[in-house]
Amino acid sequence: MSRLPIHTLTSAPEQTRPILQKLQARSGTLMNIHATMANSPAVLGAYAAMNAAIAKETTFDARTREAIALTVANADGCDYCQGAHTMLAKKAGLSEADTFAFLMASVFTNYFNHYVRTDQDVPAAPSVPAS
């Protein structure tokens, strides 16, 4: 159960409604993540702006962005994210088999590396500073 109200287009703060309508048009539904972000116009606005910038300024097409998002969602163990990005991946043209393949490849390699403690023979990813 969400800790914040899940808005509808009519119950959301008025300044968030245009953003929610665009997000709904993109995904085909008003997703709970967006409806909950609408509790804070600043949060929803920042989210929408970040996604618009990524779509505009990167060279990844929608299929590739969703494949990456599926992999990250799996690594993070976020059930909501996996479901949302599975739905968006299908809308972007990934087949059910492609989506499953991305998830399974991520699961397989993650568990394999954790289980056998694979020696690092590639450059380590840069660390992300803790906040």
Question: Could you walk me through the main structural features you see in this protein, from its secondary elements to its overall organization?
Answer:
By secondary structure, this protein is mostly helical. It is built from six helices and no strands. Helix 4 runs antiparallel to helix 5 (79-91). The mean pLDDT is 85.
Counted by DSSP, the helix tally is 6
Low-confidence stretches: none
Order of helices and strands: HHHHHH
Helix coverage percent: 55-70%
Specify Rg, calculated over alpha carbons. 17 Å
Shape: globular
Structural class by secondary-structure content: mainly alpha
Q: How many DSSP-defined strands? A: 0
Which strand-content bin applies to the residues? Answer: under 5%
Q: How many structural domains are formed by the residues? A: 2
Give the biggest sheet: none
Distance separating the two termini: 27 Å
Q: What's the mean pLDDT score?
A: 85
